[in-house]
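Researcher: We plan to redesign the surface later, but first we want a full-length starting point. Tokens attached.
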């Protein structure tokens, strides 16, 4: 399908009807949505229009937003695209959902993802397969597959996703949209089903950079229910200086498709008209994939302990011995990639192997943080490709190693906790996207670059 035209908002109700028309037209084939909140959204749109007429509307009044289905919306399905939670409904709203509602956004529904956010291309959902609206034979990117696809198909103005190693920025790049992962701790994760707690951050995808900034401004800030956000209000209020120097790590171009590398370098050349551009080196970028995979697997295996088939979601045979019931429930309800990551994480955190694997990954992560901090004393932002290739066709990448390597350019932002933004280079996703990394809590600087 062609890129949809994103028309200006006339009224909340009219904008919602446009988006629902796009859902009705495209989603039978694209399969971005797990649940459409049609009736709730229509009631909400009428209420928002009343607030607009009364002059009491919030900063997101009339914007239609989709939410990744690992973010809690009270009373709605919260599946994480897994059979383990296929029938589960959230009993409270996530912090970001509370803030969207308070800002008068209209939540149109929840969208598909790789199971428990474990995936790079969007093919690991156990509920449905989301396609790339720009080329239905190609993957939309993951794990926030539905978030990227719903934006690209014009089904919403913006979508929330979670980003553990690039899961917002990858689908943004593959679906030719803007994608933003804020500083770790800038947005509350209360109500987000975690993958790896030291890496996860909620982010935003939109076809409009200004809309993306508005959504970020509305949902960011300190939340007493998430201790990682305790500095958010104080730090984000500080007005950072404008970016003047862009660093380009040479390691960002290793293993990148020649066409995409050329497009990014051309864009960097254009930026030289407005910024000083320097080549820099961050040696540990060569090791981002193993550092990330070991860190993530260890944290993920721990986070998955609560899914035992006893308390909620998929239920095991309670007449069996406890361990047997627990084991069979997880075997039946969890996908192959989930089991693989649990097994890796369990193995590397065992007493006999912890020092050889997990502890070494943590040390290497600290070295990476130090290298980033050192380089960013002299430059304001870093620039490079967002993804090493364009979106591949379904079935072209099959092995776990191929999948893991696809994240090599995005995961450093999660390992270091820095903000990062992805911006398309043209109207065609085949030209790829450029990515900018910023300093901690200098998120706003990234919206002025490019």
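Model: Full-length starting sequence:
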């Amino acid at each position: 399908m062609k890129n949809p035209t994103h028309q200006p908002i006339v009224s909340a109700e009219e904008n919602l009807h446009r988006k629902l028309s796009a859902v009705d037209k495209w989603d039978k084939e694209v399969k971005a949505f797990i649940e459409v909140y049609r009736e709730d959204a229509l009631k909400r749109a009428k209420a928002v229009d009343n607030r607009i007429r009364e002059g009491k509307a919030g900063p997101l009044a009339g914007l239609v937003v989709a939410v990744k289905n690992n973010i809690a919306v009270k009373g709605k399905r919260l599946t994480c695209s897994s059979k383990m939670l296929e029938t589960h409904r959230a009993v409270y709203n996530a912090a970001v959902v509370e803030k969207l509602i308070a800002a008068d956004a209209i939540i149109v529904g929840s969208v598909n993802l790789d199971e428990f956010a474990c995936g790079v291309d969007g093919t690991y959902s156990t509920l449905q397969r989301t396609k790339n609206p720009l080329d239905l034979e190609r993957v939309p990117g993951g794990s926030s597959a539905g978030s990227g696809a719903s934006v690209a198909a014009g089904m919403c103005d913006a979508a929330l996703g979670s980003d553990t190693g690039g899961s917002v920025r990858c689908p943004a790049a593959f679906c030719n949209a803007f994608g933003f992962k804020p500083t770790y701790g800038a947005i509350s994760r209360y109500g987000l089903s975690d993958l790896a707690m030291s890496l996860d951050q909620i982010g935003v995808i939109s076809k409009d950079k200004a809309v993306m900034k508005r959504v970020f401004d509305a949902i960011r800030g300190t939340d007493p229910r998430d201790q990682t956000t305790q500095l958010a209000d104080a730090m984000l209020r500080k007005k950072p200086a404008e970016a003047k120097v862009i660093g380009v790590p040479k390691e960002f171009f290793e293993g990148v498709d020649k066409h995409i590398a050329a497009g990014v370098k051309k864009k960097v050349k254009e930026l030289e008209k407005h910024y000083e551009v320097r080549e820099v080196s961050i040696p540990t970028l060569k090791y981002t994939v193993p550092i990330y995979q070991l860190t993530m697997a260890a944290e993920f295996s721990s986070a998955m302990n609560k899914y035992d088939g006893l308390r909620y979601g998929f239920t095991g045979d309670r007449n069996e011995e406890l361990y047997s019931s627990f084991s069979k429930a997880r075997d039946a309800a969890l996908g192959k990639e989930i089991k693989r990551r649990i097994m890796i994480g369990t193995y590397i955190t065992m007493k006999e192997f912890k020092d050889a694997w997990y502890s070494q990954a943590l040390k290497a992560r600290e070295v990476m943080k130090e290298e980033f901090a050192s380089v960013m004393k002299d430059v304001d932002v870093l620039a490079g490709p967002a993804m090493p290739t364009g979106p591949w066709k379904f079935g072209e990448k099959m092995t776990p190693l191929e999948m893991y390597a696809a994240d090599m350019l995005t995961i450093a932002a999660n390992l270091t906790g820095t903000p990062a933004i992805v911006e398309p280079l043209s109207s065609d996703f085949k030209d790829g996207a450029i990515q900018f990394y910023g300093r901690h809590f200098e998120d706003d600087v990234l919206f002025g670059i490019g």
